[in-house]
Amino acid sequence: MRGIEIWVHSQTDNALAFDLVDILRAIGPQAEQSIWKIEGLECFGDAAELLHDISDNGRTIDGKKLVRLADQVYQTIDGYISGYRNDTDEQPWIIVRAVDGTSFDVECADPVVLDRLRQRFNTVTDLPS
Question: Whole-angstrom Cα distance, residue 78 to residue 98?
């Protein structure tokens, strides 16, 4: 898998420019069609407690529900969110990693998704291979 790093702060005023929900929406329909596993999540917002519970208990969540809940989060600090095409896959097709509330690393087997993310966000760099 190849990857990119996306910085979340605005270059002009250091405010948060986007969060996890924006990445999920930019991924497109594949995000909603995936099964997600969340690990080590730290976030703030109305849905934070529910997402923490899913993360802490190792449960999976369908993509549509994840997008709805992520829309109720205003900042994701840390977490490892792995997307699977179905519940029988052993390896994720995409990994979204929140890093210290400052960036998201996205590793993906689909170069079209990475290109879509590069086009959507301003401060993107390639992760080392």
Answer: 5
